[in-house]
Amino acid sequence: MVSVTERRLSKLLDTLNRIIHKIGKGEIHVSARFLASIIGQIISMQGAVGPVVRLRTRSMYESILYKASENANVLCNSRSLDEIIFWKENIEKMNGRELHIVEQYSSVVYTDASGKGYGGYLVKAIDEEIMGSWNDGEKLKSSTWRELEAVYRVLQSISMSLKGQTVKWHTDNQNVVNIIKKGSKKSDLQNITIKIAMM
């Protein structure tokens, strides 16, 4: 098992508490260097925490992306604060990952979406099929949104069947694969991705 040392966890939690305290006092601008150090600490823990580190540091990273210098102040917006609070509340619970290479999957899932609806298929001892249709507003969303939302809705429908399983998930949209791994600049896609990660 790979895990982050107690010293590094303690350092991160102290840093997170400091920024939360500053924001609580109304100081919504923080130095880019300070925010970058938080991101760096979290990213350095990816081996022990998993790929969620990229997904749940995206808003903080966007805050410092266009800074004038490392000493410049940047706005710590509500999405960045949500990420900071997420790490404060979850880093200790998420610390520790088994090192293993998955060669066999106990379940395989296929999802697809069209302009009218979505579907998913769980291949297991007893095959499960899930289908749904989009409402008028959802039909107007991008194909990437529909494919990502299809993954979420199918996962939500079959999550109990997947408990304790090693799952291989197939989608025909490579953007969805990348968004699930890294997150998205588009808030509607990012919100779906976070819901998927939290399941």
UniProtKB/TrEMBL annotation:
It holds the Pfam family RT_RNaseH. Signal peptide: none annotated. PROSITE patterns: RNASE_H_1 (PS50879). This is RNase H type-1 domain-containing protein. Transmembrane segments: none annotated. GO terms for molecular function: nucleic acid binding; RNA-directed DNA polymerase activity; RNA-DNA hybrid ribonuclease activity. InterPro entries: DNA/RNA_pol_sf, Hepadnavirus_pol/RT, RNaseH_domain, RNaseH_sf, RT_RNaseH. SUPFAM superfamilies: DNA/RNA polymerases. It comes from the Eukaryota. Residues 103-199 form the RNase H type-1 domain. Keywords: Endonuclease, Hydrolase, Nuclease, Nucleotidyltransferase, RNA-directed DNA polymerase, Transferase.
